[in-house]
Amino acid sequence: MSEKNSGLTQAQADKLLKQNGLNEVPEPQFNFFKEFLSKLWNLSAWILEAALILECILGKWIQSLFVLLMLLFAAWNGASKKKQSRRVLNNISHKLTPKVSVERDGKWQNIDSKYLVTGDLISIQAGDVLAADVKIISGQVSFDESSITGEAKTVRKEQDDTGFAGTTVIEGNGLAIVTATGANSRSGKTINLINNSAAPGHLQQLLTKIIYYLCILDGILTLVIVIASFFKGGDLNNLINMLPFLAMMFIASIPVAMPSTFALSNSFEATRLSKEGVLTSDLTGIQDAANLNLLLLDKTGTITENKTAVSNWTNFSNLDDKTVLELASAATDQRNKKIIDNAIDDYVSKLGLTIRTSDNFTPFTSGTGYSMAEIDSHNVKLGSFKQLSLIDKAANDKIKEIDFGAGRSVALLIDDKLAGVFILQDQVRSDSKQALAELKKRGVLPIMLTGDNQKTAEAVAREVDLKGEVISIHDFNDQTDTSKLAGIADVLPEDKLKMVKFFQQKGYIVGMTGDGVNDSPALRQAEVGIAVSNAADVAKRSGKMVLLNDGLTSIVKILDAGHRVYQRMTTWSLTKLARTAQLTMLLTFGYLFFDYIPMALNAMVIYTIMNNMVTMMIGTDRTHITYQPENWNMAKLAKIAFSLASGWTIVGIIAIAYLNTHGWSHGTISTMVYVYLVLSAMFIIMITRTKRYFWQDYPSKAVGLTQLGDIILTIILAIFGIAMTKISWMNLLLVFIVALLAAIVIDLFYQPIMKNR
Asked: Where does the chain cross the membrane (predicted)?
């Protein structure tokens, strides 16, 4: 390497950093007003806006004000929670800033990319996401520049060409000088590895169907009321007077709090995971983790320690061990050290030998299967015995005494002749056996993937108690019994995408761990792609989760986070379906049986607003971890919710019938029905949020305080007759007793069903 390309000193870098600032640009501030306006332009908002116009046309100004407040609240709340989610992801993105291999003071080191300065000499390789504009000074490198040009085609660049910040190195390697940082770079933005995909996860797609269930139910019951009004001798004016009630029935079915509950629950868990060593680059990864039932695991760095040591070395050359090992060290990558590079260098150093460097070095790629160096007039190749034996045809005759089953093999060729074989062994992590047992306990089938041979893979599988068969990738086909697999050996990175798709076609929800460039397509394809701690930048960008710590324990935490989100959203969906069905059925049957809608319009609007307040808080509720992958059956879920609603509706109709026949006025009954609906909504949340009886468990502080606030506000409105007919303390107490007894009886029937849900 020439003197002019030897990189900066640390003192020079510090001076430039002080002059020009960090290699980052503040991200655009979140535009709350713009986000607020966007929330006024969607399906839910259109329904509210149509109802608002209808209420104004009919002269219902008080109700119009309530609907307007609900519309503005939904928009404000949605924008607020979006801002909160954005803040969480921004905090995480700073932890996902790429690392860069840079030469300072004549030594190669990995630093955070935000500390790069112009003039820095950096090493670039496949999988890197450039954090600054650079001028390539050696090597041939192919880039994906779609992040700045919008075109997906690969662009090949050579010496003196420019690489731009934000682009991804697809293949090749080389050296480059930083030419522009921060706002002065081509992209002019902070480079992080957050996946900004807005695609909804499986859970959100399922819950969207709830809207359709509710709209269908409301449509049917509205039609029933309209037909019944004509049969009861009603005229057009009567129907017009009922329109505000019918509009409110539709408004009550709108899941105003659903986006907020989603955002709150996902952000809550993303923050929690970041404190436990897991960064979330795509929030849908959390919710999809609850469905996970198969996990493809890299052996090295995940099941085994991220450190490998040479256990045996055999010299096949005519040169002495000292010469051969020092030549071998020249073929290890000193710029971007991997596990094998460290293992061989450590072995050479422990023998008191010198680590050699070469001015003509070519790093390892999966395409060639080896790294290469020119030194002391020798050509040295270090890598896969399978690949190198294709160069030295006589290699297979020399290795008959080598036990390749003892560990991972690394072959050495000097001048295209087999000079030696290293046997490396990985140490199984102390937590792997217990973590794998936890994964299996949660209904997840773990399958180990490794590039090692079958014997080595079988030994590791036995050590961590992975039951089943370990097969070679060459024996893997459509007839393979996946349920009996413990591991797959001889796996190349490009095989992984094929395996992910294979298991998905078999009906599995697939998780995948990976670290390399060639792992990226598989990480992107898997429902839960997990980039391990030492993964390439492009792998971290492709996955939905990024581990900060080695090992499997963090993956168990991801599963638990997913289950917590699912449990909360199960409570939300059951509650929303049950409460809406109860409201619409109670009002419909009340009209059919008693010739009037047994609830004041003002009370209906207030009830709808209060319900959305408490259901939003469900996103922070306490949960109980389930130990099987979630598998939602929407029809079954709707059936359970309808059963709950039917129980509450029957109790409500009986109570209304009693009040009607024992002298209570319509106004008093209307307020008592309002109180009953509020209390039943609170009890439905208490019942659906746990698999125990509701009096045996308690909600989170946020949920509990919001429920308490709703009940206190309900009491004040009912006792003082605000926006509804005033009722006595005795009437209020009567409703409380009826609601409590109904909740106990319903829960006694509900819990056996809930445990089998």
From this structure: 61-79, 210-231, 243-265, 640-659, 671-690, 702-723, 729-750
What the block records as the tokens of 196 is 């900004």
* Residue among 589, 600, 729, 740 at smallest CA distance from 669: 600
632 or 531, which is more confident?
531
Contact at 8 Å (CB) between 388 and 439?
no
Cα–chain center distance at 315: 49
State the burial class of residue 400 (Cβ atoms within 10 Å of its Cβ: 0-12, 13-18, 19+): exposed
Residues 6 or more apart from 208 whose CB is under 8 A from it? 200
Cβ(581)–Cβ(642) below 8 Å: yes
Could you tell me which of 436, 339, 451 has the C-alpha nearest to residue 404?
Answer: 451
Structure tokens at 245: 């009630």
The answer on pLDDT for 275 being more than 80 is yes
User: pLDDT, tens digit, for every residue of 505-540?
Assistant: 988 999 999 877 778 888 888 989 998 877 777 777
Helix (H, G, I), strand (E, B) or coil at 567: helix
Residue 131 CB coordination number (10 Å): 29
Treating both helix axes as pointing N-terminal to C-terminal, what angle do 666-688 and 701-720 enclose, rounded to 10 degrees? Answer: 170
Q: Determine the Cα–Cα distance for residues 141 and 66; give it in Å rounded to an integer.
A: 62
**pLDDT range class, residue 712, cuts 50, 70, 90:** very high
Query: In the block, which residue shows the tokens 């062994």?
Result: 425
Beta strands in 526-594 (DSSP E): 528-531, 545-547
In angstroms, the CA 611 to CA 598 distance is 19
DSSP line for 39-59: TTSSHHHHHHHHHHHHHHHTT
Backbone angles phi, psi at 429, to 5 degrees: -65, 145
Residue type, 605: V
List Cα–Cα distances, 670 to 155, 421, 601, 604, 652, in angstroms. 71, 87, 9, 10, 12
Q: Would you give the DSSP letter of residue 129?
A: B
Does residue 654 register a pLDDT over 90? Answer: yes
pTM value is: 0.72
